Structures are given as structure tokens and as C-alpha cells.
């Protein structure tokens, strides 16, 4: 549901205020926690799956895409580092919540812990959403910082080898007060393509496949790390398991940040 909701709501997120989208994501994510807590209290596994898996997944997808979409618009020249910094919250969050979860379960029942975690997420996400806003329309054009616009497009060393480029060569668009034309053989910093052209390209589906494989197995690993630690290494004490999850979270966060930063160099 994370990926599906991100794709479905993507166009809507692009055309609406990031603050509004973040608020929606926070409320839906909270609703998923509450439904899961109710399902656990009633011992209804279907309600747990629907609440935390379906509803919570939709809220997660909206919040995820909203954050990335807003961040890369503010830092068009360092999109890899900016997006890496944003998604490193996934890893950093596991560091904080692995310890918080253990503390909650020592005092509260599992349904109560779900409700408390949902409330904590809601408060934090609502607070953060108030700081989210898009840059001024003339701040940048897609993929290019405004300080690059005055340069000749042929002077910008930004080679892009895309098979779809030939089908859009010569097309122009007025973006941010600038007329941009896709014309050079080596590739311009802006590719003006339609959704149908993007989806019909081989590059898109290879990129999508890479995301799909990475996300599915990454989330499976993260969500089962505690039980894997217990089963594989016999660490059945809460302190040992929490330590392993915390260490993984630190590397998870730093890996997202480092790989994003490196991608800007390439």
C-alpha cells in the first residue's frame, strides 16, 4: 500500500499544498493505528491487517511522497542528498521507536501501545506539516536550479542517455518564465515528457523494478529484524534485541543519506 498509494496520490500531491498533503497523511496514518488497536483488542486479525496494513499503508505512502516531493523542489541542485536526508528518517525513526516500543510494552498492553504510538506519530507529523511549504514558482525549473538558467544549456555538463529523448527532441515549454527546448544530442538538463511517454519507456520500468525489489525486501527485513535476531542468534532478552535494531537503524539512516549524497556526484 505504501507504493500503490504513492503512485495513485502522486499527481494530486504534486498539484496541492505539501502542508495539506502532510496533514492528510498524518490523519490517515493515525487512523490506521487506531483501527489496528481496535482489531487487537477485539482479537480480529482481519481488522489488524486492514487498519495497520491498508489504512496505515495509505497514510505512509501519502506522507512519504509528500515529503520527498517538497524537499527536492527546495534543493534542485542537490536532490540526492536532500531526498536522502528526508528518507533517512525511516532509519532514524527505528532507532527511537525500537527503544520506545520496548518501554511501552513493559507498561501497557499491545492494543494500548498501538494507540499511544499512533498518537505520538500524529502529534509529531502535525507539527512537522506546519513547516512544509513549496518554494516560490520562480525558485527553480524542474531539475535545474535558477542559478543555472542563465547558462547556455550546451554549457551544462549534464549528460542523459535516455531512449525517449529522441521522441521529444525539439519540444519547448515555458517554465518559470524561461522557454526551455529539448534540443541537444547529448541531453539537456530538462526533459519535457508526458506521463504516457514516461510509462512507456524501458527506463521507467527498470527504475520501478529496482524500487519494487528494494522496498519489498527492505521493509520485510526491517519489520522482522527483532524476531530474526531472536531465532538466529538466540538473543531473547529485550535489551539485546533492541540494541541490534538500533544499530541497524543507524546504518539504515546513514546509508540512505550517504547514497543520496553520492548520487549527486554521479
UniProtKB/TrEMBL annotation:
The transmembrane segments are 22-42, 49-75, 81-101, 113-132, 205-226
Q: Please list the GO terms describing molecular function.
A: transmembrane transporter activity
> What keywords would UniProt list here?
Membrane, Transmembrane, Transmembrane helix
Q: Which InterPro entries match?
A: MFS, MFS_trans_sf, Proton-linked_MCT
Q: How does it sit in the membrane?
A: Multi-pass membrane protein
Location relative to the cell? Membrane
What Gene Ontology cellular component terms go with this record?
membrane
Q: Member of which family?
A: Belongs to the major facilitator superfamily. Monocarboxylate porter (TC 2.A.1.13) family.
The name this protein carries in UniProt is MFS general substrate transporter
Q: What is the source species?
A: Coemansia guatemalensis
Amino acid at each position: 500500500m505504501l507504493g500503490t498509494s504513492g503512485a495513485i496520490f502522486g499527481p494530486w500531491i504534486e498539484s496541492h499544498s505539501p502542508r495539506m498533503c502532510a496533514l492528510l497523511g498524518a490523519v490517515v496514518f493515525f487512523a490506521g493505528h487506531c483501527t489496528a488497536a481496535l482489531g487487537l483488542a477485539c482479537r480480529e486479525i482481519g481488522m489488524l491487517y486492514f487498519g495497520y496494513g491498508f489504512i496505515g499503508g495509505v497514510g505512509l505512502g501519502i506522507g512519504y511522497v509528500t515529503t520527498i516531493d517538497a524537499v527536492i523542489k527546495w534543493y534542485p541542485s542537490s536532490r540526492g542528498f536532500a531526498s536522502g536526508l528526508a528518507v533517512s528518517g525511516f532509519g532514524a525513526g527505528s532507532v527511537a521507536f525500537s527503544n520506545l516500543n520496548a518501554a511501552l510494552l513493559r507498561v501497557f498492553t499491545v492494543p494500548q501501545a498501538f494507540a499511544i504510538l499512533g498518537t505520538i506519530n500524529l502529534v509529531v507529523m502535525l507539527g512537522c506539516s506546519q513547516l512544509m511549504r513549496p518554494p516560490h514558482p520562480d525558485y527553480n525549473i524542474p531539475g535545474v536550479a535558477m542559478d543555472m538558467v542563465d547558462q547556455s544549456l550546451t554549457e551544462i555538463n549534464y549528460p542523459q542517455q535516455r531512449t525517449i529523448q529522441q521522441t521529444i527532441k525539439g519540444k519547448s515549454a515555458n517554465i518559470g518564465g524561461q522557454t526551455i527546448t529539448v534540443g541537444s544530442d547529448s541531453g539537456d538538463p530538462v526533459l519535457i515528457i508526458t506521463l504516457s511517454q514516461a510509462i512507456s519507456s524501458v527506463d521507467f520500468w527498470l527504475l520501478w523494478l529496482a524500487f519494487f525489489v528494494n522496498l519489498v525486501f527492505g521493509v520485510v527485513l526491517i519489520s522482522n529484524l527483532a524476531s530474526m535476531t531472536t531465532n538466529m542468534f538466540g538473543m531473547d532478552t529485550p535489551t539485546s534485541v533492541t540494541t541490534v535494531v538500533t544499530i541497524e537503524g543507524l546504518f539504515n539512516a546513514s546509508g540512505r543519506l550517504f547514497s543520496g549524497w553520492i548520487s549527486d556526484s554521479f
